[in-house]
Write a structure and sequence with these properties.
By secondary structure, the protein is an alpha+beta fold. Helix content is 50%, strand content 10%. The protein has 17 helices and nine strands. A seven-stranded mixed beta sheet has the order 3-4-5-2-1-6-7. Helix 6 (149-161) runs parallel beside helix 8 (185-196) and helix 13 crosses helix 15 (305-317). The longest helix is centred in the last third of the chain and has 22 residues, at 256-277. It starts with 7 loop residues before the first strand and ends in a 9-residue tail after the last helix. The chain binds adenosine-5'-triphosphate and magnesium ion.
Length: 357
């Protein structure tokens, strides 16, 4: 990029992670070139995104995301806000210092020029990395309102980096949690994957609970956890999160299906029990309760069918572990979801002592 005469910096998570001694998972670049100019400079470049236009420069199977400096657009009619203060479009180009201040946290707004070996810092992000503090740039309430996903990002980065959320930014989280209802469920699904499948699920889960955000994401499960027999379910969920983190740490595969099966289990299970009490068979009750739980959940976090289908299979196989004799055992063990369902059964022991072998 620099050879083509443009400004170009590594920016955001990769700079923050390098300074915090964490291996960055990807590298993002910020530039004064427009996406079209980037495309002209690199043959392997693809332009993506509508709401937020970006250039991807491909290298084999990998790519580097290149974003043009964005302007703050403050007092400018080209940036639109909803009545709750949510930012709708963000495609006004600007200078690097404007680009810095429209980022979320100060630690995410550092620019590294690897050629000069220089870091540009417009928002005291360097100081905050040193102090291990997450601080929103500007007025925290306005910044959360502009994009309430930042509430989840605060928690996610606190969990991942083991940083402390600046007190005012922390205090606002509980009161603004309801704003998440305005976020498209598909975006919350993406965010949920980052919270629960990035190797820091246990800490993220605990912090979501601590900051009162878990309820905003998983209302039906939260209701069970807060109820009288909630302690056992809480233990099961925590163990599920810790297991996932261990699997990721040792390079084993993890799936959103298993994660959502765990997160929605308390809600599904309670409903299943109510249906059984009304006289439905176990299999019917699970089927109906799964339907109910998924229907309610996807209004907040969309779960693509390729994950909700195996999730339901994991649930539906649970009562079949009670038959431990005869032909059915062989059939159960050859089910494609047997392994996941068995791992899930092991987790359930923490919730239900009667399952103890
Ligand atoms: P990681 O990739 O490790 O999860 P990251 O900081 O790279 O962390 P991304 O979601 O990849 O997070 O975003 C890259 C950068 O874009 C961020 O560092 C931040 O500067 C900016 N950014 C991302 N999302 C937002 C947002 N919702 N509001 C403001 N700035 C954002
Ligand atoms: Mg990133």
């Amino acid at each position: 990029m620099q050879r083509h005469g443009y400004q170009a910096y590594l920016v955001g998570g990769c700079v923050r992670d390098l300074l915090a001694d964490i291996e960055p998972k990807d590298f993002d670049v910020a530039t004064d070139a427009t996406p079209e100019q980037v495309k002209r400079a690199f043959r392997s470049c693809r332009l993506i995104g509508r709401r937020f236009r970006l250039a991807h420069i491909h290298f084999g199977r990998d790519y580097i995301e290149v974003a043009t400096f964005r302007g703050s657009g403050n007092g400018d009619d080209r940036t639109e806000l909803t009545k709750e203060g949510r930012l709708l479009a963000d495609n006004v180009y600007g200078s690097i210092d404007e680009d810095a201040v429209r980022r979320d946290f100060t630690v995410n707004a550092l620019y590294l020029d690897p050629q000069r070996g220089q870091i540009l810092d417009y928002v005291s992000g360097y100081r905050d990395v040193r102090a291990r503090t997450l601080r929103l740039i500007g007025d925290p309430e306005a910044r959360y309102r502009e994009d309430p996903v930042r509430l989840l990002r605060a928690v996610r980065f606190a969990a991942k980096l083991d940083f402390t959320i600046e007190p005012r930014c922390a205090e606002l989280i509980a009161t603004l949690g309801t704003l998440l209802k305005n976020i498209p469920p598909a975006r919350l699904f993406e965010e949920a994957l980052k919270l629960f499948l990035s190797g820091h699920a246990r800490r993220s889960f605990d912090l979501l609970q601590e900051y009162g955000l878990f309820r905003a994401l998983f209302a039906d499960t939260a209701a069970v956890l807060d109820g009288e027999s909630g302690a056992a379910s809480l233990e099961m969920l925590r163990a599920g999160m810790a297991n996932t983190d261990e699997r990721i740490a040792s390079g084993k595969p993890v799936t959103p299906a298993f994660m959502f099966a765990t997160l929605l289990w308390p809600a599904m299970r309670r409903h299943q029990q109510q249906l059984e009490a009304q006289g439905h068979t176990v299999a019917d009750a699970i089927h109906m309760a799964a339907e109910w739980a998924v229907f309610r959940q996807v209004a907040r976090i969309s779960i693509p069918r390729r994950f909700s289908t195996p999730m339901r299979e994991i649930w539906q196989l649970q009562p079949r572990f009670e038959n431990r004799h005869g032909k059915r055992v062989g059939r159960l063990m050859s089910h494609p979801r047997f392994r996941a369902a068995y791992d899930f059964l092991l987790l359930r022991v923490l919730e239900d002592e009667s399952l103890e072998p």
